[in-house]
Amino acid sequence: MRQSRYSTSNQCRATMRLSKKKICLTFWTILTLSYAFYAEFLIYKLKTGSWPFMTCRNEKDCIKILLVADPQIIGNLNEIFSPLSPFTIFDSDRFLKITYYYAYNYAKPHVVVFLGDLMDEAHIANDDDFNSYVRRIFNIFLNPYRLDNNVKHVWLPGDNDIGGEDTDVTPKKLQRFERAFSQSSFHTVGNVTLFKINRLTHIIPAYKKERDFFDTSKIFVGLSHIPLMFRPSPFPEKVINKMQPHVLFTAHEHKSMIISTDALLHKDYHIVPITPESDQIYEYALGVQNMYEILIPTCSYRMGTNKIGYGFAIIENNELRFTNLWSPSRFEHLAVYLILVVLPVLLFSFYKTVGCVKTRSLRYANK
């Protein structure tokens, strides 16, 4: 009789343990799937709710510009832990594609400017790898929007695309980039003229007409991968004196700020850092007194900062309005994923170990 009761009691305990395990497993599965839905889909939509509302007052006189800086898509060579490369490439490309999708649809731009460092390893890539990187760039930033024929795309090279920092700029690298992204140095949309500046090759745009900074019938916008006023030297001075841009959009530093200086004197520089915490719309009258340089943050979560996003500018007559469309932090969500996967494994291993110790203790006690 005692043996029967003891057996029944053990069966009840085993059933209760199994039931608790099922409940815990179900709860953890629901928690993980819910978090995955939030981190992979919902967070991007929710983030747009914090973006400042900015639109044209008069569509006829308005140019909307979306600015993309330093996506630096991952290459095939420099990943630290190469077995994970397929996953890291997939995740990084997907993040860029989703965040760009929301920024593009929010801004509804007339012009999209890519401010260089499109690829991380293009400057050291062979032709086959380079062409595969270009296809990935087009798949991320162009393929979903092929029907938007009225949107102009402007492409600039960065040091990771053609060299200039870790490696030298060579004619082959420069020609390869220009073949893939073939276009002129000047682009005119409405009363706005955008012109490319290549500080890596020290090429000054060929413009024969004399410029008047205070003439705002045509707004001149300079585009450069490497900042100009933020890094003064003789070359930026030549460009600024010749082209007299009303505003410059630059990248490379992976952070955002606005630099202003007197358009004639070029002596004192006033710097305003832009962070997600100081999220606002910045408004300036162009061609009045000051010249402006706006640094655009990186849009890639792989650049060692969580302050990532896209620049959005509206130029209407001679008025400039600017804001950043900040993206959610990706590394935080990847860290939570790691916890959700590793913690159950650790707990399971712990309970298995404790269970084995208890079983051995009971065996020794019964002996």
TrEMBL record:
Keywords: Membrane, Transmembrane, Transmembrane helix. SUPFAM superfamilies: Metallo-dependent phosphatases. The keyword Secreted does not apply. The chain crosses the membrane at residues 334-354. GO terms for cellular component: endoplasmic reticulum; membrane. The keyword Transmembrane applies. GO terms for biological process: GPI anchor biosynthetic process. This is Calcineurin-like phosphoesterase domain-containing protein. It comes from Dendroctonus ponderosae (Mountain pine beetle). The lineage of its organism: Eukaryota, Metazoa, Ecdysozoa, Arthropoda, Hexapoda.
